[in-house]
Amino acid sequence: MSIGNSSADAEADDRPSIGRALQQARISAGLTVDEVSSTTRVRIPILHAIEQDDFSRCGGDVYARGHIRTLAVTVGLDPAVLLARYDAERGGRPAPTPAAPVFDAERIRPEPRRPNWTAAMVAAIVAVVGFVGFTLFNGGAKSTNGSVAADSPSAKPSASPSRKLPSGKPADPKAEPSGKAIAGAPANKVTVKLAADHGQTWMSAKDHNGRLLEEGVLKQGDSKTFTDNTRIDLVLGNAGAVRLFVNGKEVKNVGDKGQVQRLSYTKGDPVAG
Q1: What confidence score (pLDDT) does residue 188 get?
Q2: β-pair type (249-251, 212-218)
Q3: How many angstroms separate the CA atoms of 237 and 226, rounded?
Q4: In terms of pTM, does the model score above 0.85?
Q5: Quick check: 122 pLDDT over 90?
Q6: With helix as H, strand as E and coil as C, how does 119-167 read?
């Protein structure tokens, strides 16, 4: 029995610390401390302290747990595992405090809004008045048209709505909707669309001048589109989670789960530059 416990303790001792695990995951994701700080809004000195397993600068266990959760999600780790280790090392999870909602904002749900009966009544009255006016107007118009047709033998019926042009097309043709969101991307520009269909990822997009267009965590189900006259440069922290469209065409095999990809696209792609 003691041998089994010793083996488990040895395996636990071999695991990297919380701060070391966060640091290794950040480096593996190709992220700098500045990039993580910009994404998470955790100040750089606190980030450095956490990676050295110094949680004293966090302002208490509640804030420390919130920072750990946020950083773990950003670098691709499971926050539940790190939080369980943090609690175990400190004798259990701390009692809830008013500060907890700062980091558990995703659990907060807005109170259901009460129906605005005044606005609904006004809308109903307007609809009724409009319907009555429309009915009276149409009735008068039909009576007038009927008398003209009876008194004037030369009166001709109006053209049928289903009449077709000689070419066989409908009289009022409309453009068919495009099958893809950026299928009509302009040929004189480069257009890149990211869709996080298979998970969330950290991403960064820059134009040809190196100007940052956007960076941060793209959550599952979200999408972003970027356009530039010359080139778009991308960094993907979890390439396997993303569907990528360049100039209206899908790019296959962007990368694997957890793989960091740095990509550039120009007009005429979708072949990576």
Answers
A1: 86
A2: unpaired
A3: 18
A4: no
A5: no
A6: HHHHHHHHHHHHHHHHHHHHHHHHHHHHHHHHHCCCCCCCCCCCCECCC
Instruction: Determine the Cα–Cα distance for residues 25 and 15; give it in Å rounded to an integer.
Output: 14
Residues 6+ positions from 173 with CB-CB distance below 8 Å: none
Handedness of CA 20, 21, 22, 23 (dihedral sign): positive
Segment 76-104, tens digit of pLDDT: 999 999 999 999 988 766 555 554 444 44
> Are the CB atoms for 238 and 202 separated by under 8 Å?
yes
User: 119 is written with which tokens?
Assistant: 């606005």
Residue 238, classed as helix, strand or coil, is coil
Contacts of 219 (CB under 8 A, 6+ apart): 196, 200
- C-alpha count within 13 angstroms, C-beta hemisphere, residue 267: 9
- Return d(Cα 116, Cα 208) in angstroms, integer: 49
Distances (CA, A) of 54 to 20, 51, 64, 93: 11, 7, 10, 18
User: Is-contact 214 224, C-beta < 8 A?
Assistant: yes
Torsion sign (Cα): 42, 43, 49, 52: positive
